[in-house]
Structure formats: C-alpha cells, structure tokens
Specification:
- Helix 1 (12-43) crosses helix 4 and helix 8 (232-244) packs antiparallel against helix 17.
- The chain starts with 11 loop residues before the first helix and ends with a helix.
- Helix content is 62%, strand content 8%.
- The chain has 509 residues and is α/β, with parallel strands linked by helices.
- It has a 5-stranded mixed sheet with strand order 3-2-1-4-5.
- The protein has 21 helices and 5 strands.
- The protein is extended, with a radius of gyration of 33 Å.
C-alpha cells in the first residue's frame, strides 16, 4: 500500500516542499510591506524617489521617501530588517526595490483602482462627464477625464454624489471634431454608453462651449439628454475680467494697483516700511482669480492715507536711492488723481458683492438652483444700484481730492482742426469722463451676466424646482407645480409616462 506525501515526513520531497512554502511566505510578507508603503506614499501624494537611491548610502543622504520609509519600518520589523540587510550585502539580488519595480506596482494599483471606479460608474448607470485640456511641463497637450455619478451603497444605506478622476489622455488636435472623437473613443474604451450620459461640463472656451460647433453641441446632437453646464465661478470671473477691460481708465487704475505692489514687494526694506505703517499689506492682482483683485484693492482703499504718507517719506528720504525716490514720486502722482481716487471707492463697492457670490459658489453644498438665484440677485443689484454706486463713488472721490488738494478739472486739450472744419469736440469734464467710465463698466457687468448665465437659468427653469424642497411642500401653487412637472416630463422621453400619469392625477383632483 502506497503512503501519502504527508506520511513521508522523512523523505526529501517533503523537506523541499517545506522550504518552498517558507520561501513563498517570506516573499509574500515582503511584498505586502512594500505595497503598503507604496500605497501610503501614493495616497499622501508624495514622491517615491530621491537623489541617491542606494542602500549603501549613509543615513545623512536623501534616499527618497520610499527607501527612507522602508528603513524606518526595518527598525521595528524583523522581516524588513532582514530583507534590507540581504539587499545591501548582495547587490544585484532580487529585492523588488528598483525604480522599475516601484513604477510597476504603481501602475498595477492604479489599474485596479480605475477598474473598481468604472465598475461603480456602470452600476450607477447614469453619469456626467468633465473634460479639460491643458499642456503639461513637457509641452504635451493632455485632457483630464472626470466622471460624476450617484454612488448608492445599499449595505451602508448611503447615497452620495461622487466624482472620479480616471486619468489623462494625450491629444494632438484641439478642434471640436477631434476632441469629440477623443471623448467618444475614451468612453467606449471605459465601457460607458454615451446614451447614459446626463450632463457635460467644460470650460468656457469657444471650442468647448460653442453653441454651433463646440464640443457640447456636438455631444448634444448625439445625445440630447446630455445637458451642458459650464463652470459658474469661471464664468463670473470672466464677467469681472471683461468689465475691467471696458475702459482705458479702468485698465490704468488696475495697472497702478499692480505697480504699487511691484514697487513695495521688490525690496525687503520698502516692504518692511509698508508693514509698519499698514496692518494689512498690498497684494497683487490676478487675471485668472478675480477674488485676488478684491484683496488688492481693499487694503489701498482702507489705508490710502498711510500708503501715501509712506510714499511721501520715500520721496523726501535722504537715505533712499535715486530709483526709489523716482518710482515713489511716480506712484504718488499716479494715485493722487481724480480718476484713481474715484475709481478706488467705486471698484471696492463693485468687487465686494462679486467676491461674496464667488465664495458661495465655491461651497461644496451649493447647487445650481441656489447659484442661479445668487447670480440673478447680483445682476439685479448692479442694475438697480447703478446710479447710487456711481454718485457715491464720485462724492467720495471729490472729497478725497479736496482733502489732498488735487485739482479736479484741468484745461481741456484743444484738437487741431483742418481747414473748413466747423465741428467741435464735446470736451467732457473730468468728472463726466469718470462717470461715463463707471456707468459703462456696470452696463458691461450686466450685459456679461445676461449672456454668460443663460444656460444656467435655462437649466434652473427645467430642474430647479426639484431642489426647492420648501417650495414643493408649502410655497408653490398646484397649477405652477403641474406645469413644471409636465415640462420636466417632456424633457426626458423616459418621463413621458410619468407626465401622463401626473396629468390624470390633476384631472381626477
């Protein structure tokens, strides 16, 4: 009768199998520790590699976060201590510590995470897409892919709106047709059906948001249920940027604000003198982040006297260099003009409400219904307060001119006329020019907000009533609710049956 392998405890095959099992378990323990370290560094968004990646280096050299973390672990873990000792004593032996192995582990983990996210998105069925292109440091154009969906956990009984970043896609062409082809190809690779897409979000570039041949319009032609929603905060930022370019006077004003910051920030001694005189120092403006202009204008408006006194002291300072005295005098003269002093108060009053709305739009709890209401209120504020904002700014500006003895009206420049020319220039006074510039700025703000937020208000008209829980329960009338439900049902072909049932319900009532 043959004996089993387990009974042959004294045979060499059993001993070999036992050594194989021990060796297998050892490498499993090592790989488990390595993968956990890489996972920790990737989760914390920390670089793995260093300047001198070698176990032969002394403790004073930077071996990188990965090897440094393994050394720290080896101080308390015998398994890792033995592994690092073996790798150090036997260079070239299998250690799984090389840069290629680290990258392979990262790619495997990233692939696993991406597959899990795609499975979750497919289970949710309906989704929204967000694509944005930007060049990287190697000057290669790449598109980021983000998918937004509703994640329902039936085990924990939780529902949340989730956003998953799925990766970068390298592109060569940036026209609308090529970008749509890239998006459709990527969705097909990911196993997501375009017909299940319910929203699309891009930046405000014409190639993406264009209503004739933009990416959003081409996607809507293939799936009319993919509602386009652009970034409201970016749109509001562009409203302010375009309004600030409306008049040369306004461009000059913000140029003076920026020149003031450059003057003080270019020298530590000047900056220190400014900090002594002003509790809140001046800041730089920004074309991409409109709220930065609020922080640039407010300190100057609140501490105008102190800043002018600092400039005056630098102009007369015997210890200052010639360049410092010259630049201080130029800034002092640029600030003490009726246009600058009037626009300073005007833009402070204009920027503050815009800044408040922008901060609300950044709130993760903000929805498009509340955003539409806030932006509509902001637009109406500028329309209703147009005359008051202008008259108040003129009053404050003229008072500052009197306080600093600034001449408000200067002799108008005479334009040379040709022979036989009888027409004359209107010759607006300084206050009239400033009033015209301020009113044109407010009108540009109002026009830009009407144009840029049309889609948002259309979306709110279709779906906004669903987010107004209080209005649904108590405030809205039955006839209005009936109309909104029917319009909502007509938006989606799937909801036509619901609309018909709703109609029968109201008829029976």
């Amino acid at each position: 009768m043959k004996r089993t392998l387990a009974e042959n405890k004294g045979l060499i095959d059993v001993e070999l199998q036992s050594e194989i099992d021990v060796e297998k378990q050892k490498w499993r323990d090592i790989l488990e520790r390595l993968i956990h370290c890489i996972k920790f560094l990737a989760t914390q968004n920390l670089a793995l590699r260093g300047h001198r990646e070698s176990l032969q280096s002394d403790d004073a050299s930077n071996v990188g976060n990965f090897l440094g973390l393994l050394k720290l672990l080896a101080a308390f873990d015998p398994v890792m201590q033995a592994h690092l000792k073996n790798a150090k004593n036997r260079p070239g032996s299998t250690s799984y510590l090389s840069a290629a192995t680290q990258n392979e582990f990262i790619h495997l983990m990233a692939s696993t995470v991406r597959k899990y996210m795609l499975e979750t998105i497919r289970q949710a069925k309906y989704f929204g897409i967000m694509f944005d292109s930007t060049p990287d440091q190697a000057h290669r154009e790449q598109v980021s892919e983000v998918v937004r969906y509703v994640d329902v956990d039936f085990t924990k009984k939780t529902v949340r709106v989730a956003e998953s970043f799925l990766g970068f896609i390298q592109i060569n062409l940036k026209d609308g047709e090529s970008l749509v082809g890239t998006i459709l190809s990527q969705l097909e690779k990911d196993g997501m059906d375009l017909q299940d897409c319910r929203s699309q979000c891009y930046d405000n570039a014409a190639v993406m948001a264009g209503h004739k041949s933009g990416v959003q319009q081409r996607i809507i032609e293939k799936n009319h249920l993919a509602v386009f929603v652009n970034c409201d905060n970016l749109s509001l930022n562009l409203v302010g940027v375009n309004a600030a370019k409306q008049d040369v006077m306004t461009v000059t004003f913000f140029g003076t604000i920026q020149a003031l910051f450059v003057f003080f920030s270019s020298s530590t001694q000047r900056w220190e003198k400014l900090k002594i005189a002003v509790p809140k120092v001046v800041k730089s403006e920004s074309t991409t982040r409109w709220s930065a202009r609020v922080e640039a204008v407010k300190p100057i408006n609140n501490h105008l006297d102190e800043i002018l006194q600092v400039l005056q002291a630098m102009m007369d300072g015997a210890t200052e260099t010639t360049d410092t005295r010259s630049e201080a005098r130029q800034l002092y003269n640029r600030m003490l003009t009726p246009k600058f002093l009037t626009l300073l108060g005007f833009w402070t009053n204009v920027l503050l409400p815009i800044d408040r709305v922008q901060k609300r739009l950044l709130d993760p709890a903000m929805n498009f219904h509340d955003a539409a209401l806030d932006l509509e209120s902001l637009r109406d504020h500028f329309y209703n307060e147009r005359e008051r904002l202008v008259s108040k700014a003129l009053e404050v500006g003229l008072n500052l001119c009197q306080e600093w003895e600034v001449e408000t009206e200067r002799r108008p420049r005479r334009k040379k006329t040709m022979a036989g020319e009888t027409s004359k220039d209107a010759g607006l006074k300084t206050t009239q020019e400033i009033e015209r510039a301020m009113k044109e700025t407010i009108d540009r703000l109002h026009t830009e907000m009407n144009d840029r937020f049309t889609r948002l208000h259309d979306t709110d008209a279709k779906f906004g009533f669903l987010l107004d829980v209080e209005g649904l329960c108590t405030g809205i009338s039955r006839d209005i609710l009936k109309t909104k439900c029917e319009n909502f049902g007509q938006t989606y072909s799937v909801m036509l049956m619901v609309s018909s049932c709703t109609r029968r319900f109201w008829t029976s009532e």
